[in-house]
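Task 17 of the worksheet. Students: predict the tertiary structure of the chain below and write it out as structure tokens. Keep your answer in the requested format; marks are given for formatting as well as content.
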Amino acid sequence: MNLNSAFTRIVGLLLICSLFCGAAFAQDTNAPAATPTATPATAQVSTDNPTVAAEPYQWFYFLGRFHPILLHFPIGLIVILLIVEVVGVIRGSTGEMAAARWVLLTFGALSAVVAAFFGWFLSWTGGYDADIVWWHRLTGFIVAGLASAALIARFLYDRRNDDRFGWAYGLSLVACAGVLVPAGHYGAELTHGTTYLTRYLPEELA
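Model answer:
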């Protein structure tokens, strides 16, 4: 297989996987469904749900409670990595920046994948607005897919020194950082309500 074919297949597969993973998990019908009657303003995990303590999902419910802790890692790591890369383009990359890149990228991608799955588990407990859960889960898994794509593309770029992998890395990273914005927004709506930002909006800005 030549390099052109390998590059096309890898990048295409990564993009397709990131989109279909998000769509598949967002439309999952095998897991316990989120409670559709909860309103965003009062959305919270049900503490008296008898299914929460029931097997075989108990471990998944337990792990899901760590989602609010883990989600901050990919956000911070990916944003810092993007800043490091911008500085590297402007001032030139150094050995220290290359080392920092791999630490940020590796842990950013891994934490994004883990946070996405733990968030999916958390949604099984119910008590959240179903529509917002759908969008948050979709964008969360797309973030995880793009972060993983960036990790693989950077590995191939460093290994083969092919600019096309470098472009794939840069585009995946920028797209990942971009999708973080709506993913975080939908997550905030689940915990704080849809009117959190606008509740005290001055009349002049309304």
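Marker's comment: The chain has a mean pLDDT of 81. The CA atoms of residues 109 and 147 lie 5 Å apart.
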